[in-house]
């Protein structure tokens, strides 16, 4: 295979295929090793979670079950409002994620964010 003669598109396709194959083989090796370790532990009457605290999570990942998502069975915890819009106290922001426009405008006026905290405490 002459890499120098390949077009950029062909090289990118090849790169994608190589990355996919590396990921596949790595995952396969991980699963095989985990199965071997589980078998060795079982022969001694133990489970991997008995031996390693983080093994319980690894065992769950290797189990061929439905794909898990954050939304499956868990609700995101509500975060308390830390900052309130002084023009409209009904509007708040937890301080996490993207800043709302009213916070950006507030900071653009060189006003400290701490003043919005004080509004939230009232």
UniProtKB/TrEMBL annotation:
Residues 73-118 form the DNA-binding protein H-NS-like C-terminal domain. Pfam families: Histone_HNS. The keyword DNA-binding applies. Residues 53-76 are annotated as: Disordered. Its main location: cytoplasm. It is found in: Cytoplasm, Nucleoid. It comes from the Bacteria. The keyword DNA-binding applies. Residues 64-73 have a biased composition (Basic residues). Keywords: Cytoplasm, DNA-binding. InterPro entries: H-NS_C_dom, H-NS_C_dom_sf. Belongs to the histone-like protein H-NS family. This is H-NS histone family protein. It comes from Aromatoleum evansii (Azoarcus evansii).
